[in-house]
Amino acid sequence: MGYTITEKILLSHAKGISEIAPGDFIRANVDICLGNDITSPIAIREFRQLGKKKVFNQKRVCLVPDYFLPAKDIQSANQAKLLKEFAAEFGITNYFELGQMGVEHALLPERGLVLPGDLMIGADSHTCTHGALGAFATGVGSTDLAYAMAFGECWLKVPETIQIRFTGKPRKWVGGKDLILHVIADIGVAGALYKTLEFTGNTIEMLSMDDRFSMCNMAVEAGAKNGIIAPDKETEKYVKAAVRKYKPARKAYKVISSDEDAVYSDVREYNVSKLEPVVAAPHLPSNGKSVSQLKDIEVDQVVIGSCTNGRISDLKQAAAVIKNKKVHSRTRLVVIPATQAIYLEAIKEGYAETFVRAGGVFCTPSCGPCLGGHMGILAKGEVAVATTNRNFVGRMGHPQSSVYLSNPAIAAASAIKGMIAHPADL
Amino acid sequence: MKFKGTVYKFGDDVNTDEIIPARYLNTSDPKELAKYCMEDADPEFVEKIKLGDIIVGGENFGCGSSREHAPISIKAAGISCVIAKSFARIFFRNAINIGLPIFTSPEAADNLEAGDIAEVDATRGEIKKAKREKTYRAETFPKFIKEIIRSGGLMAYAEKQK
Lengths: 426, 162
Fold this sequence. Notes:
heterodimer; A: alpha/beta; 13 helices; B: Aconitase, domain 4; seven-stranded mixed beta sheet; about 20% strand
């Protein structure tokens, strides 16, 4: 009986076992662990209570203060300072100060810090993003991060795997975001609870890494433990370029894929050749609708960014829709590139100018308003279209505000039209 | 270990933004987080509850972000335990890791109503309404998880391993 890619990675990192099956509890070695300015302060407090003099590996702990920097208030500044001091005291090389910092799930792959075949944990639910590299990556809590920083290991339950097989060529303006919103609308926010979502099929090879990151990013919105895509040429090209450019401490990686006779708890097929862009209506990511079902909804704010869709191809797509047009007078447009490198490239390619000339704002890399942090909080009754990943009650501000989730092209078109719109409507 | 308290009932997919909204995440102080527990699901929750009361949820309780602030705020608010039909996986491990007792029991979650007094025998994994005979079973934990729970959380468990 064969193994899935997830089972193979878990087995190769597990302690003291020679075979593995869904439901097993394992202790596994962690290749890389991650925390941010919300989750690390608790992890640091827990770590300090253990009285350890060293972290398990100074090069394998990543601290990214991406939520509230530039600090939005005194308390946030104090939290970020805890990370900085901890990194200095324990010699943590992958601490990213403002100026280097970016949205963690865009930054780490860009720097070549997560590699195919890795086992990664992050004290952030969207750590599943990194599965697009063919790594096992899952979100955990702060105490798990403290434990991993101390011992380099983590307890895990081996998940069952659902195979999601995509076939067909997606239409124009349809990308990874639409594919994953479509799946979540189908299986629900708990449709993959405790399980793996493994994305396969001939559509995958037509998708850029940015599209794949945005798909794996939202695996957690179906309750999944991880999302994963077996590495192909596109993955290796991306990883090799990152390693060449940033020269991370680890360079060797393993290309792993599922066996022919691997066991899946479910296999679901989706032909996406006729799929239209999907918009998730408030207040769950599973409320997927077509744009035409939502056409009369007026929009107060559009947010383009986040760990889901703040990468260069996302900004490129949005800029293509917005070029030579003006943002509607009732709408605010907030564009947030996910990292400094993306920010620079958006300037070089002229996307930043397109957004600003249209009447939008182009911000410094941050999680920003995605979770109601800063840089675009919604007032009572306001409506946003966002390329982010969650539209829960109060997620982006007032408990009586609402968020529609979409891909960058739909978000851009909605900013121009002042209501939810498809680029073809402009 | 046994718990007894008034039931506060919530529906399916209660998310961590409702349990502790991000506007309060500029601190990790449990006392501070306790003040806003469940605020976006029930704004008066903290005013109503007494020490030892019990939260009962539906499917996928605690879905959304990885913020450990969510189980911390519930624990620090004085809630003795959470019973649900199922838990979102990060909330599940966070609760275990910080020592907030949780019980998966679809039967109990269906039958307990808001305002009921519930009794929970954590050791036996049994839940019942006060003064009633009928008990509802909670899923038992595997041995490894039991050790973490018995230690009072993951870091206490780590101390014992030293």
